[in-house]
Amino acid sequence: MNYLAHALLAGPLATDRIGGIIGDFVKGPLSPRPAGLSAALVDGVMLHRRIDSFADRHPAFIRSRMRVSADRRRVGGIMVDLFYDHFLARHWAQFSIQPLHAFTAETYQLIARHTDPLPADFLPVFERMASHDWLASYHDSSNVALALDRMSRFRLRQPNTLAGAGEELEREYAGLEADFLSFLPDALAFAAQVREARP
Q1: Do 45 and 124 meet the contact criterion of CB atoms below 8 Å apart?
Q2: Cis amide leading into 159 (omega within 30)
Q3: Is the pLDDT of residue 35 over 90?
Q4: CA distance 179 to 121
Q5: Tell me: the pLDDT tens digits for 146-173?
Q6: Is 164 left (phi over 0), alpha (psi -120 to 50) or beta?
Q7: Which of 128, 130, 22, 93 is nearest to 14 (CA)?
Q8: Which of the four, 53, 141, 195, 197, has the lowest number of CB atoms within 10 Å?
C-alpha cells in the first residue's frame, strides 16, 4: 500500500495514521523499540507492516501484480501500491464520509504537529508531500505516472524499469479498478481487526 491507503487504513488514532505514513522509513526490527520512536508510533508502524503483508497475500492484489507487464514485474508491487492510491482517491466517497481534501489536510497537520522525532529521511519527503498535496493528487492518473517516474529516478537503484509505468495503469485500468474494489473492503476489515486486537 502507498501513503493514502495507509493513512485511511490506520483508522482514527493520530499515531496510527502517522505510523502508517512513516512506515517505509522505519527499517529493521521494532522490538526492542527503535530509539526516538514512541510506543504509540511503533504500534502505527507495526500496523503498516501487517497491512503490507496482508496486501501481498490478497488474491486481488496478486491479480493486479500479474497485470503488470513481464518487463516491469519486478517493480510490480510499487506500481500496484500507487495504482491503488489512485483508485482510492477516485472512489474516496465510497470509503470515507470525510471529503478527501479535508482528510489529507488533517493528515498533514497531524504530522506537522507531532512532537516526537520522526525519521530524518522522512522529513524532506513530508515537506514536498504536504506542499504539493501528494495524497489527493493521486486522483489524477497523470500524477501517478509522474510519481512513478520520480521514484524511478530518485528512490530506486539504477537501472530499473519503473519509468513510464503510468502507461500500464491506462492499459489495464478496468481490471485494476475491479481488483482494487475487491481488495479494499477486506483491507479495511483486516486493519480494524488488528487495531481492535491490540491490548
Answers
A1: no
A2: yes
A3: no
A4: 32
A5: 999 999 998 788 899 999 999 999 999 9
A6: left
A7: 22
A8: 197
